[in-house]
Amino acid sequence: MIRSELIQKIADDNPHLYQRDVEKIVNTVFDRIIGAMANGDRVELRGFGAFSVKRREARMGRNPRTGEAVEVEEKHVPFFKTGKLLRDRLNDK
């Protein structure tokens, strides 16, 4: 499911809301999650999962084409850990 499909589904399920308002709500939720993660905070949605940021150390890598050693800088990557309810539904418990 992509963002536009999510917005359409919520708008269809809630006919009393305008689609433009649903779009603003969805965008606000995503912006808040992104903002919190950018600040290094953890975002937990009970039953769904938790988003956090993990730090990857700088290291020496290799260019796969030439085999030349390349320095890879430290970086931060998003990490998602599923919640128990989501895991249970995926495994039909």
UniProtKB/TrEMBL annotation:
GO terms for cellular component: chromosome; cytosol. Keywords: DNA recombination, DNA-binding, Transcription, Transcription regulation, Translation regulation. CDD domains: IHF_B. One of its GO terms (molecular function) is DNA binding. InterPro entries: Hist_DNA-bd (IPR000119), Histone-like_DNA-bd_CS (IPR020816), IHF-like_DNA-bd_dom_sf (IPR010992), IHF_beta (IPR005685). It comes from the Bacteria. It holds the Pfam family Bac_DNA_binding. One of its GO terms (biological process) is regulation of DNA-templated transcription. Coiled coil: none annotated. The keyword DNA-binding applies. Heterodimer of an alpha and a beta chain. PANTHER family: DNA-BINDING PROTEIN HU, INTEGRATION HOST FACTOR SUBUNIT BETA. NCBIfam families: hip, PRK00199.1. This protein is one of the two subunits of integration host factor, a specific DNA-binding protein that functions in genetic recombination as well as in transcriptional and translational control. Belongs to the bacterial histone-like protein family. This is Integration host factor subunit beta. The gene is ihfB.
